[in-house]
Design goal:
This protein has 4 helices and 7 strands. By secondary structure, it is of the alpha+beta class. The strands form 3 sheets. It has a 3-stranded antiparallel sheet with strand order 2-1-3, with helices on one face. The protein is globular and about 45 Å long. The termini are far apart.
Length: about 140
Amino acid sequence: MKTKKRIKNKSANNLGKEVLPSEKWLVSFKNPNNTRSVVPRVVIRQFYAQGYYEAYDIIRTYAEKLALEIIWFKEKRNCSHLLMSKKFPQLESICVYCNRIFNELEPIPCLQEDCIHTFCSKNCLANHIRLRHKWTK
């Protein structure tokens, strides 16, 4: 009897909360501290957020951490068809082998055709192949 009442109370409490689905967002950064070139480097990344304020919080934190300048950010579905059809790197990726957060323009994919994992370094890729796919060099 008590468990049925608890379940009803929990479901009644959840009805009042609004669940927002995560949307894919695009953000464009400019790196003004680029020492390799006179022209600042512009980078576009994608990430998931539930709304405008969460998206702003994510990119603002990321930009402050890496000393980048935010040019613009938008929901991907509201962008032009040229940006919608492209696949951009994630804002921050997690290496499957060492669990570090890394940010590379081109993460290193696994060499096995059916494996979808990405890695931060060639060392992590080699260890993954040795342990997961049991290849020996």
